[in-house]
Amino acid sequence: MTIKYELYNEDCVAGARKHLADDSIDLIITDPPYGIDGHKLHKHYNRDEGYVLDGYIEVPETEYPEFSKGWIKEASRVLRPGGSIYIVSGYSNLRHILNALAATPLEEKNHIIWKYNFGVYTKTKFVSSHYHILFYTKPGGRHSFNTYSRFGPHERTGQEGSLNYQDREDVWVINRKYKPGQPKNKNELPTHLLIKMLQYSSNQGDTVCDFFLGSFSTAKVAIAMNRNACGFELSKATYKHQIGSMERIEPGELLSRLRTPEEHLLYNQGKPWSEDELEQLLSSFETLRLNGLSKKESIQRLTADMGRGYFALMNALKRSGA
Ligand SMILES: C[S@@+](CC[C@H](N)C(=O)[O-])C[C@H]1O[C@@H](n2cnc3c(N)ncnc32)[C@H](O)[C@@H]1O
């Protein structure tokens, strides 16, 4: 598999129109500028701004509604039917992003809260230590959601319950990178956060786009997970600072270090079927078929849930007359 990247030093709307065909992108992960006036922005961080790289391009607060509509419309155009988008947003301009999303055909899947450390320090109100992540998909196709890509359906530790369930709750606690004394981009997204979105919502060989590259974090992690990457960064200084480092990313280099299910997915293989199990198989199969999945797709989906292989499921369904 040949993995490619196409990263442009251009405005994302003009760049997408020029370089990206309709329905061509499997997944967009992006973190637009905040739309907070420059002189107020540092108040949102408890850190030494001297180490933050120059070149970040902000959008004036008054232009934020139109700005959001423009790029989100383009994002919706380039996503393939069934493609997914994750937009990271602070709370200040969240309403404009939600309004812009509502003006597209994109469908909401989750409104995720990302809780992080190093919140904005305040004395006269609560400390803000979360972002919003809006997870939407484009209708017209099946979206990739790799339910068991990280934790198997029966993985547990002690009293904590299902690890798969916990990992799929819509509040994510993932700390931001603390890089004291090191150059950093404003709001660089943590690798673990990107890995999580990429594992659940894309597959090797897919194309992943970031409309606001910043430190190119999405593109770097995507390549390291064997996905193709594309994207845009308007700032010349930021682009120049990051583009050279792309060559050092080895396609697929992260794959062997990812959290993958520890248990054998076919944990029921060879065991006799119980009545309850057969009933569960039939009702889940029927539901998937009613949701428009083909016979083959439905059986493939159910193998992990049932802990049995494709042919075992197919034979059990045949025997039951389904
Ligand atoms: C919040 S940062 C992205 C941070 C990035 N996710 C990371 O992990 O480093 C937003 C970036 O968008 C860039 N930007 C602003 N307006 C843009 C536009 N119209 N097109 C493309 N990039 C833009 C800014 O210069 C900034 O680098």
What would your notes on this structure say?
This protein has 322 residues and is of the alpha/beta class. It has two domains: 5-257, Vaccinia Virus protein VP39 (Rossmann fold, 3-Layer(aba) Sandwich); 275-319. The protein is 33% helix and 18% strand. It is built from eleven helices and eight strands. The protein has helices at residues 12-19, 38-41, 64-78, 94-102, 163-167, 191-201, 217-224, 236-243, 275-290, 295-306, 310-319; strands at 5-8, 25-30, 79-89, 107-120, 128-137, 171-173, 207-210, 228-232. The protein has an eight-stranded mixed sheet, sandwiched between helices. α7 links the parallel β7 and β8 (228-232). α1 packs parallel to α3 (64-78) and α3 packs across α4. The longest helix is centred in the last third of the chain and has 16 residues, at 275-290. It is globular. The protein starts with a strand and ends with a helix. The structure holds S-adenosylmethionine.
